[in-house]
Amino acid sequence: MNKDNLLKEAKRVLLDNFQPEGFTIPCKGLYPFQWKWDSGFIAIGLAHFDIEKAKSEIDSLLKSQWGNGFIPHIVFHNDSDTYFPGPDFHHTYLHPEASKKYKSSGITQPPVIGFVLEELYRLAEDKDDILCFIESRIDSVYKNHHYFYSHRDPFDEGLVYIYHNWESGTDNSPMWDHIWETMDPPDYDFERKDTTHVDASQRPTKREYDHYIHIIEIAKSCNYDDRLIAERSPFLVYDPLFNAMLLKSNESLIKLYGIIGDQYEKVEQLEKWQEKSKKSFNDKLFDHNLNAYIHYDIRNSKPIPLISSSSFTPLFAGIPNKEKAVKLIQTLQERFGGENSYLCASFDPTEERFNPKKYWRGPVWINLNWIIYRGLKRYGFDEMAERLKNETIELIDKEGFKEYFDPRKETYKNQGHGGYGGNDFSWSAALIIDLLNQ
Ligand code: DGY
Asked: pTM of the prediction?
């Protein structure tokens, strides 16, 4: 397809998935509500052709914010019975500051909204209008960051924990396998919906879902109190992707407050968080043997020495110094960048547990490619950035706006296709619009 047709198709996907309530579903059937980080990436795509829809995307998410600053990973604005666990599962009314108006989950997702606001500022033609919009929403995002540093950083390290694999965004990554081994959840009786939309071999297993549900049951038994969750959740992790998104968003808030002016206290606070977080990030999450950023399992007090696409996302937030960045790129090239592979597999292809077809255990994801692309550009690795961009466009052009893609080039020759998961997936469309316009 030529560039114009690809852009036209991407626009069609976003408009088809846009809902009357003013937000965009990630994908029909499979994900029929509003998802937090999806909405962020979707807003970037929308901003290229309909800034009002991009604003509405952000607004419908921020409306669901809790009194303590928390922003949930799913907001149930609308009715649908095609997804489990749906609106009646999470019982967020247990938390005294949860939104009374909007049903939601009680877990969150990577904090992308800060840098998305900066992207909207970059893309909007009418800078006065977008600045006015940002000015009236930015404090909600600041409050969300304040929530993370005051509720999710129990050791005052400048690193914030996630307590559920769904908070990482990389749901069934092999990162979590050893954590599942420390748990023995009940064999819950529930009706999965995802495997009615997508081949079960491309989704997490029933036993994995038992673990996912169990952690939420524990959080409910804590009334979603973060302090109790930090004591009791069997899953408690510093995730490099999650923390890198927070740092990148801090940086964007600093820039945007600078443009707005007169916000010295908030800027000073953001700079303090930023300095402390960057230091801890490099001290605690960089593995000098693997030459990559890795996850840290707080509950079991040990690093998780495995590499995933999340390992490269700190480039986007300017976290490594030049020397570390060079090492990181070598790791990317050696393990993920062979000539028979599309960049960037979601899990280390040299590891035994790499599975090129199964959700976050190997396939390429467009949002991670976009984040890494921007990181490579930031550090001047232009050749690698160009390769990543071209391969991302090639995959979408070949396969359509699929949810994820087999990183092995041979698959496309042998089986004729390699795109998996949902069809017409919104962030695949949104970020292709952005990449095609770079
Ligand atoms: C899912 O259902 O797979 C989602 O990613 C969880 O938020």
From this structure: 0.98
